[in-house]
Amino acid sequence: MARRSLDLVKHVKFLAQAGAITKPKWLDVVEKIHPAVPAKSSKKPAVLRFPEDDLLQAYYAKHPEAKMEPVDLSSFEPTSARKFVFRQLEVMQTGVPRKEAYDIVSKEVAEAASTSDAPALGRVVLDQIQQEEEWHLMNAMSQFRERHPTVAKLSPKKPPPANPNPAKGNARRPPKKAPRPTPAPPAQSMPA
């Protein structure tokens, strides 16, 4: 659009100088204002790299099970992998090389795991997840009962109604056809 307006200004200025039209009042104002430079973003945005990215990648390479750790989105608590990497960065900032810092933090984590109830912590998280799932399930079931009152009368706790005629088997199954009588053997005549 800026190029077109620039061409228009040149064209009107040329016509005014040639005497074809009278000079418009806006021409002087528009000539003083430089046209806007069109924004061209041909470059890709720079990739953001943080110091802990390489350390985190190395940690996940050595401990792939850490990728499967559940993340609580309502908490600001970092995952155990990020805690490990942040601690490793702290140790590295004191002048310790990367591998030695990894070994130091690994020993710290192992000591902390041996003195605490780490398996119990996992069980607590699992119990919390199960309680949340149970709440959602009960909520969905109550909504279903409200929307479908006729179906809600059949409670899953009660056994299905008993078959009124147990001799016939399942009431939904059509009755079996009676077997065809086998023809009697031909009568033999007895000698007199």
Overview of the molecule:
The protein is mainly α. Among the domains are: 31 residues; 66 residues, no CATH class; 37 residues. Helix content is 53%, strand content 0%. It has seven helices and no strands. Helix 4 packs across helix 5. It is flat. The termini are far apart. The model has no long low-confidence stretch (mean pLDDT 79).
List the helices and strands and how they pair.
Elements: H1 2-18, H2 26-32, H3 51-62, H4 80-93, H5 98-115, H6 118-147, H7 149-152
Helix pairs in contact: 3-4, 4-5
Protein name: Small ribosomal subunit protein mS23
Family: Belongs to the mitochondrion-specific ribosomal protein mS23 family.
Biased composition (Pro residues): 180-192
* Structural class estimated from helices and strands: mainly alpha
Number of helices: 7
Strand content: under 5%
Note the overall shape: flat
Number of strands: 0
The largest sheet, given as strand count, sense and whether it forms a barrel, is: none
Order of helices and strands: HHHHHHH
Instruction: Quote the distance from N terminus to C terminus.
Output: 128 Å
Q: What is the structure about, briefly put?
A:
Residues 142-192 are annotated as: Disordered. The protein is mainly alpha-helical and 192 residues long.
Features:
single chain, 0% strand, mitochondrion, ribosomal protein, 7 helices, Small ribosomal subunit protein mS23, mainly alpha
